[in-house]
From TrEMBL:
This is Lipoprotein. Residues 42-52 have a biased composition (Basic and acidic residues). It comes from Rhodococcus erythropolis (strain PR4 / NBRC 100887). The keyword Signal applies. Residues 32-52 are annotated as: Disordered. The keyword Hydrolase does not apply. Keywords: Plasmid, Signal. Residues 32-41 have a biased composition (Gly residues). Residues 1-27 form the signal peptide.
Length: 191
């Protein structure tokens, strides 16, 4: 049994588009990779995940701002207290702060409750914090293992209805200590 294939003529615009697309693909395949034409690629296919908030990769300022953002971000509808946020910040903590969290056993860590906590809990609000190094940060000599960094933080109340309210910015004086595993927040105080 023989079959006769009937050829359907393709529109001229389609053929021109296909030729242009093929040319573009082939031109991209032959593009220079910046390796001097050796044909060797400098990339890797290791698929390593780089976490920009990994405490081992943060500098002192990154540790101070990241830790304080976590400490000041609250979920009153699910958190028992602000202590839950301190426990979430554990990867960025060191010294006495880490010891407090590690020895907490679920009890309150002595963090003063916020007067609006009950209202936020009842309405299902959450708070998120955004922090940056403050200009009031004292200069530290090069090579110090412990530095003081002032951090300006602004909390935003995210209302369950979809609106938000910015709270006044606050400055916190943090103490950051270099460890074998990177910088860690060892103390913080409201200024």
């Amino acid at each position: 049994m023989t079959s006769t294939a009937r050829q359907i003529p393709l529109p001229k615009k389609f053929l021109i588009g296909a030729v242009i697309a093929t040319t573009a693909v082939l031109a991209g395949c032959g593009a220079s990779s910046g390796d001097g034409g050796s044909g060797e690629h400098g990339g890797s296919d290791d698929h390593v995940h780089i976490d920009p908030y990994d405490p081992a990769h943060l500098d002192d300022v990154g540790t101070a701002t990241t830790a304080m953002q976590v400490i000041l971000s609250w979920q009153p509808a699910v958190d028992e207290s602000k202590s839950d946020a301190l426990r979430r910040a554990r990867p960025w903590l060191g010294g006495d702060l880490a010891a407090i969290v590690d020895n907490d056993n679920g009890a309150a860590t002595g963090i003063r409750p916020d007067r609006e906590w009950a209202a936020w809990k009842e309405s299902g609000d959450a708070l998120t914090a955004s922090c940056a190094k403050a200009e009031s940060t004292p200069a530290a000599p090069e090579g110090m293992r412990t530095v003081v960094i002032d951090v300006s933080c602004r909390q935003t109340v995210l209302h369950a209805a979809g609106s938000s309210t910015n709270l006044a910015a606050q400055t916190w004086r943090t103490t950051i200590t270099r460890t074998d595993d990177g910088w860690r927040l060892t103390d913080y105080r409201y200024q």
